[in-house]
Amino acid sequence: MASNVLFGLFPTQLYSWAASLCLLLVLYKATQLYLRRRFLLTAFSSFPGPKRHWLYGNAHEFKADGKELDIIDGYAKKYPYAYPLWLGNFYASLIVCHPDYAKAILSRQDPKDDFGYYFLIPWIGKGLLVLSGQKWFQHRRLLTPAFHYNILKPYVKLMADCSKVMLDKWDNLIGEEKPVELFHHVSLMTLDSIMKCAFSYHSNCQHNSENEYIKAVYELSYLVDHRFTCLPYHNDFIFYLSPHGFRFRRALKVAHDHTDNVIKQRKKSLHEQKELEKLQEKRHLDFLDILLCTKDENGNSLSDEDLRAEVDTFMFEGHDTTASGISWTLYCMAKYPEHQQKCWEEIRDVLGEKQTVDWDDLGKMPYTTLCIKESLRLYPPVPGIARKLTQPITFCDGRSLPKGAVMFLSLYAINRCPSIWEDPEVFDPMRFSAENLAKRNSHAFLPFSAGSRNCIGQNFAMNEMKVTLALTLQRFELYPDPGNEPLKAPELVLRTTNGIHIKLKRKGGD
Hints:
Layout: H1 11-43, H2 68-78, E1 82-86, E2 92-96, H3 99-106, H4 114-117, H5 121-124, H6 133-143, H7 149-152, H8 155-174, E3 180-181, H9 182-199, H10 212-229, H11 236-241, H12 243-273, H13 276-280, H14 287-293, H15 304-335, H16 337-351, H17 366-378, E4 384-388, E5 393-394, E6 400-401, E7 406-410, H18 411-414, H19 434-439, H20 458-475, E8 476-480, E9 488-490, E10 494-496, E11 501-506
Parallel strand pairs: 2-7
Antiparallel strand pairs: 1-2, 3-11, 4-7, 5-6, 8-11, 9-10
Helix pairs in contact: 8-9, 8-20, 9-15, 10-12, 12-15, 15-17, 15-20, 16-17, 16-20
Subcellular location: Endoplasmic reticulum membrane
Keywords: Endoplasmic reticulum, Heme, Iron, Membrane, Metal-binding, Monooxygenase, Oxidoreductase, Transmembrane, Transmembrane helix
Binding site for heme: 455
């Protein structure tokens, strides 16, 4: 008898109780979804937008065929300033596509929306990219010295050395008379560079990508993007039970163990040397040196957990985003030969017979810099950023949004806003001349965001793009591969579904 009774309940009572509990949970969830939908409908009522499907919302329009960003940009021209997009019936965000709206948003301190960034947190922790509030402010202040120009100076030689390794590999590929897929090679190069700059780690990853840590970082980058685009994997339970979830956890352990060991050894080294100046006599100061030695006004330094989060964040942001920027810039050079020629002439005059780029050379390439900026306008490495309102906001045209609403700033659409950019699809570097900049909206071009949360590593990224472009054009002529145009893939970083292919010809060759 006792075996059929649980907590004094008979089986029929137990089943009835369980059914009632399930019903209550279903009703609770249904009420949540109903209230969420009503909130969204009210919040976005003053913003007309594209017609949505009764079940899918607008999600069914995005088919991973390389046209997703063009759809967003097309709607931006039809609904100026902003419009709502729905993923199903219970999630929607306001797509912002005008600089005036972007300025209003980025002048505030609203946190980033969890969606998208959430998948990165197991890898990069809660570092500068995802933090908000007072802790973000503390980390930003502590990290700022790591990006002073005196720290960035010696990085230029490391960047040049890593670029030359990649170009030497391309030299060997020319004889095969096949187009080169840029993103793979450039990504390994920027990974090599960032590891040397972040913690003086010479990985040789461009020749040996079988190193466990290299494989782990590469694997994590791929899996985060894959999870972002695979809707079932948005559920933690489904993802962690999947083969991809197993691969993610395995790579995560390798990456975190490596970062922890490097931090532990460097702490011991700095403790024995006592002073940072003694270390600087032996080699350049890297990102980790600065993080370990920096303290706030109260003498507090970063915890081990915070240290790892910031190093891993720097690895992600300084590797994938810069690889995207460089790859698309080289693609533009191949596609627009008249601008490639002008850049090469400028680079030839600056470098002469030198086979490297020095710090002082970076400021002597104005036209090359304009071309990089125009490439970033057309193909922003981060195609959009999200914010979640902590307080209501009223925009320049009088329309408002309540607290709790989510906004997605489409940098891709803002960079093509027809009321700001004349002939926005045309590649025209002179848009960024001093004369034209003086007349333009301050938030019309946001490759590194803006306001207090702008990208802390933007000078690092621009330096690496200049170095790589200069050394590439010094050695090669770039040509497009018309039969294999890249299909844009708007993930956390602007990638493609089919690679970015160009043809190379050695300068001075046949």
